[in-house]
Amino acid sequence: MSVNTDTIEVRPIPLDSFEGDRLLQSRFWARLKGLYGWKAFTFRVTTVSWKAPVSILVLYRHFMPGAAIAYAPHPSLPSGSGALLAPLSRALKEYLPYDTLLLRWDLPWPLDTDSGSAAIEGLLPAPVDIQPPNTVLIDLHPDEDQLLSEMKSKTRYNVRLASRKGVEVSSEGVGGLSTWYDLYRETAERDRIAIHPESYYRSLFRLVKEHPQDGVELELLMARTEGRAIAGIIVSRFAGKATYLYGASSNRDRNLMPAYALQWRAMTDAKASGCVSYDLFGIPPADDPSHPMHGLYRFKTGFGGTILHRLGPWDYPLRSIRAGGYRSLERLRRWYFLEYKKRK
Fold first, then answer.
1. What are the entry keywords (predicted)?
2. Are 99 and 133 in contact (CB under 8 A)?
């Protein structure tokens, strides 16, 4: 069965037939989220406006009895498709459970393209971000000398300083995860961030092992000095794109610059594996010294590359009144955590 709405044809397909080209639009991601309360719906969509069919992963989850949301993270829709999002949402509605209040599109399109916010018709900006809308993308096509030359001088110096100080970086599998997680807890306490239990990160590696056909590779890189672990990162590789997912570091030995050594190793490993880009996955929106994560901005932008400001999440209400109530709750929660709680 298919549904045609404004020249759009939607066909549900089995997960094993789904072929995405982004990590968040992959079978691996659908399986991972399925372990934590989300149900995956996979579709193949065709329209006269696109040269080829597009596969779309939509995740569905209840947040209270009788009320759920649907979420499409970083769908691989062609640039310039903003006007099609509303009719596409109406077409997908036929396949989503009745209690779905809204369909949230987390759009990866750059702000400064013909897919900008002015070109999106019939959707509302979401009250909260889910995926980081701002990031740094490193083009891995140049050779290593060129990649180093495109870094800021201080970053390049710190990459080399870590090596001179004896920091050693090794690629480890799930066997190193407990050590990494101890550092991650330390990081969470220091930076006051929420993290998943260790079992969540173990499930990442387990899914990669159990479903090699999904095409995802994970690498755990650990930095050590005198045999002692002082920092570590988890990096994914999928469809020619590498993504920095999680980072942890000790409160000690930060002057040895292990974070720089880790990122450089992640880039060179990604390049050697055939990846053409490396996503540092999340920075503040601007070079603002007053921003609480300004240090992160300076760190990641120091590696060169291109700063990308994505359009981020947009909502198509499927049950207008109840969707409005849910969006109001999100705004209230955002205000509580980002403004009220920080004043206490």
1. Acyltransferase, Cell shape, Cell wall biogenesis/degradation, Peptidoglycan synthesis, Transferase
2. no
